[in-house]
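Researcher: Go.
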Amino acid sequence: MAMVSAVLGLVVAGLAIPFAGVLGFAARDVADSMRDLPAALETKPLPQRTRILAKDGSPIATLYDENRVSVPLTSVAEVMRQAVISIEDYRFYQHGALDLKGTMRALVTNAGAGGVVQGGSSITQQMVKLTLLSQAKTKEDQLAAKEQTFARKIRELRYAIAFEENYSKDWILERYLNIAYFGDGVYGIQAAARHFFSTDAKRLTLGQAATLAGLVKNPVGYDPTNNPGKALSRRNTVLERMAELRVIPVATAEAEAAKPIGLKITPNRNGCMFSRAPFFCDYVMAYLLEDPALGATKEARKSLLESGGLTIQTTIDVRFQQAADDAVSRYVYPTDNAIGGLAMVEPGTGEVRAISQSRPMGLNERRGESFINYVVPKKYGGSGGFLPGSTFKPFVLAAAIRQGIPLTTTFNAPADLSLAQGNFANCPGAGNFVGTWDVGNAGNQNAGARNLYTGTAGSINTFYAQLEMKTGVCEPWQLANKMGVTVPVKERQPAMVLGTSVTSPLEVAEAYATFGARGIHCASRPVTALLDANKNVVKEYPKDCTQVLPSAVADAVNDVLQGAFRSGGTASGIPISQPTAGKTGTETKSWATWLTGYTPNLAMSAFIGGVNDEGHPISLNGQSVGGRYIGNGSGAGTTGPIWSAAMSAIAQWLPDTNFQIPPPGEIKGFILTVPSTGGMGVKRATDLLESKGFNVTVSSGEVDSSYPQGTVAYTSPGGGGSASSGDLITIYVSDGTPYVPPPKKPTKKPTKKPTGTATTTPAPTETKPGNGNG
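Model: Structure:
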């Protein structure tokens, strides 16, 4: 160190600052300056870009503060190593931290020019400078790393000596190639190879390598995308130097110099705006930024995500995402006075399969662009949410079933009711509701007598108001919150059953997925794991699931909600290709319309909400949305096409799985299909009917039937018909003789009379139960 210090007192000063007037100062103080510096420079991991991957492993987005992918030296083409050493430090493998020969040459040149015109820094010294720049956290640190001073040169040299003492030449060259800036937003040789030539560092050709090696000295001035002429000239300089050093033959250099650069640009796409699923990407980032395990502050978490070289494995299915995007964009345009959106969640895992909305990501409001994610909860997307309307009713339905209220419970559902809110029980200790609640049906419909099946299928408001009076307000409110739909305490009131608390499609899909998973609620999650740059697991995000409803209760809810898509249901016009349950929702003034439908494998919530130019909610009525005029908005008619289009596209990838029927006797009033028993032995038929949850009696005597004597002739209600669990099924036993109707009496021709006409009416044919349908 003493010897190096003595030599460098003169040399370093001439390189660091203008030649005149500093040599004596440098020679006098350099040794002391070297000894005062730390012995080594800590080399922190280089910032690397993060990739976000879909469920199938395909990339959907790239995030970075510095666009870099670090690679080992063995993954860099030998010609690339030769090119950069030839042009930057041809004696790299022969000298130590300081190349005295090169430094003295630069000193003489600078002295003749009266200033710094040529650098003498070795690759190791350059690597030190780049490391200091990379690790600078403040503007002051950044300026100190670039200042043209004697102190900086001494500091860099001291660190270079330490590197040469502690690391191999290959390690230093590897770090140099990975840390160097190559211009146009790319750092490191792998990102440069990919960006400028759409290839990998290990596959670079001679011409490509010479081009990239030439960029290191002045990545802005020689940038081939902005200064192709200068870049070409610089490339040829590198080729000439390689030939001069006999790294390549002169003829090869001349032949290569005659070729164009041959750029093949892969664009830099940093951030969610360039993602194939921008708002899902945005949701992923917001979700991870809420995780304290990734850093003490959001700033620290953001830094890790943008520079940690992570691989983020997500739950998105790109097929489902494409279907969602196509459906939403087809029925809601970006500049409409409306927002359309759709969320898909898998029951039993909570994995989010797709997030889509009609407003593209961006700043151009004239094109309808926005950075607000309207499909996810406010803390992840910034939207205040939309009123869900009748999509809230299933929480009251589930509470009623869990409380043992029979599904056959009937209320008269007139067009409107005025109900004393004091008759609605609140949560214990929360006080009583006061005042009256005036509730009416859509279209002023007098629905008549309805039970839980028909009242739900028709989404009858006055029916559900009376049902909530029986369940109380507390249990439906608790269920909603446990299932993912946040309803504040201040909005816990009787009118809650009609959807008076704003929510998001993702929350609704999460809740309905709970029904599809037979009462198991799984929190929505877009991420399954984080891996570091070496593919080691940083953190896993397993499913977070809890049984919040008895499976039999959820099964009964599923059975009732299938009525929405059947004849008489509010979504009966929506085509389905497999067992599907769900609910429509329309806010009173059509400020928002919903259709949430689900199978045992996927819950999908679609909505359209009216929004004016200021971002305030407005009615959809009278608006043109997606080129369609909306006279009176409805869940099925307005939003149903979005849901239907998406489901039609993805149904091919969903298993055809049936909802389960609750075990016999667990749900009161459950409507079941009576099994066919014709021709069975009486005991076997009795056992079958009782196993399905029915009570059974056998009629005395026998009846005419073509089935063998002593077997079941028919039942009442008959096979294929419907009955509630616990209902009485009567078995009629066959006498083995088919029923033969009596012969018809012959009819006489009428006799004409002078006045009027008389006819003889045949006796009515006697009817008697025969084989039936079993």
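Model: The CA atoms of residues 750 and 757 lie 8 Å apart.
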